[in-house]
Structure prediction request, 419 residues.
Amino acid sequence: MQQEEALFILCCGAASYIAVKEDESMKNRKKRPWVREWLRQRKEEGCCVKLLTQLRAETPSLYKNFLRMNAADFDNLLKLTAPLLTKKTTQLREPISASERLMVTLRYLATGESFRSLQFIFRIPHNTISTIIPEVCDAIYKVLQPDYLKTPSTETEWLAVSEKFYEKWNFPNCIGSIDGKHVVMTAPSHSGSIYFNYKGTHSIVLMAIADASYKFLYIDVGSNGRISDGGVFRKTSFNKGLVNEKLNLPPPEPLPGRTVSVPYVLVADDAFAMTPNILKPFSVRNMNAIQRIFNYRLSRARRVIENAFGILSARFRVLRTPIKVDPPKAIKITTACCVLHNYLMCRNNSIYFNPNLVDHYTQDGTLVLGEWRSERASDSLINLQPHRSYIAPNCSTVRDEFSQYFVEEGEVPFQYKHI
Prediction:
């Protein structure tokens, strides 16, 4: 018993000694600050927000370059998004303002800078920025989509789109130009090959339809890059509406000066199946002169969507580098870029859109490539994979009717120089 008592006393002494040492260690250890001092001094010492205030007053062009929009467009966007972005002030801390949240997000979309880089510019921790940006992108899409990215829903609206295509691109009965891009991102954790595309990168797919003025009429974002490109469009709500005749498209009408009625169509490339409402080019093998002219005229109208993507990635350079977030956040970033593109095209076209940025034609029909193509090598928007796709029954007769129109009633004098 005496040995047991001695052992017990010895253990109690050792435990007390350890507890005292731990207590001393805790006292000597520096307390971790609630907020780092260099972050706490965001308002006192100044940050990018103060610089932007100066640029806004003194050099508006630099302000626009920094945020990809002028002060009036920013103020209007802030007014729309502020109710969704404003946080409550508590006893513990003052929240980051809606203005700062919007600024850091627009700068990220404009440059694709890393969150760690942005934290030094705005004095906001990178982990907080990683939360702010998806939240702001979601708010931007919610407030702008109803007015700036609304798909036509009546015959009148579709006819207005068609008239613009006829007026600007000499292509009647056209309701849009369709294409898709792989938006490259870093490989998500534990995703295997789900997002692995044919180019050997990981991506989500942006499927879009553009009108004659480079604005998006419809977007679908989020299909994983592994899905076949034809399969992406088949899954979209637009295709389902097309198949089920729920889009309220105008009924088939003859092309100008002709008698055979043809449906209103989307112009597409070889990545898509040809259906009654989707026109694609003839195969390049053994084409005759009429087919070559059709392909030229189709390509001329289809460049609209190529150039819409070109403007998008030139102005929002986050799309030119692999996006380093998980797929749900990448979807929010991409949709925000698309709706901001339409917002700026509608509000201030002359500032956001430079005609030299896109492909354009001289009076004799000579193609002048847009400036966005000079940076294409660094572009992270990857084309859909071309392949021989299905041609639905009776679609060839529709394409043949367009072909005859382009060499007869719809002939333009410069088309023969480019076939």
About this structure: The first strand starts at residue 174 and ends at 185. The radius of gyration is 28 Å. The mean pLDDT is 85. Strands lie at 174-185, 202-210, 216-224, 253-254, 261-262, 265-267, 278-279, 360-361, 367-368, 381-383.
